[in-house]
Amino acid sequence: MDPIDEKKLRALQMLQPPGLGKGRALLATLRTLMLFTAAMITLPIGLYFVSKTYLFEGMLGLPTIDSYFYSAIVAVVSVHIVLALFVYMAWNEGTRQWQEASKLE
Fold this sequence. Notes:
By secondary structure, the chain is mainly α. Helices cover about 85% and strands about 0% of the residues. The chain has 3 helices and no strands. Helix 1 packs antiparallel against helix 3 and helix 2 runs antiparallel to helix 3. The longest helix has about 40 residues, at about 65-105. The relative contact order is 0.12.
């Protein structure tokens, strides 16, 4: 086998998490993706209604028209927080895999 091919093969093997097979790595990635998908759907909807009912109308005594507006802002901010967490986790995972692959060269 050519030495260049051996380096490429070892680099590809390092891209998988240690101790996990190909199916398990895919399953772990799918589980993380589903977690963030569920959080992106349920968290903003839940925070919208909770903040509208309890925070803005209940505690602060705002009228219904204003509470719709402010609770929508809370929901949009929560979506952005979930997206930022997903990007942070994906970036760190990609950086870790890149560092492991570059150690082989």
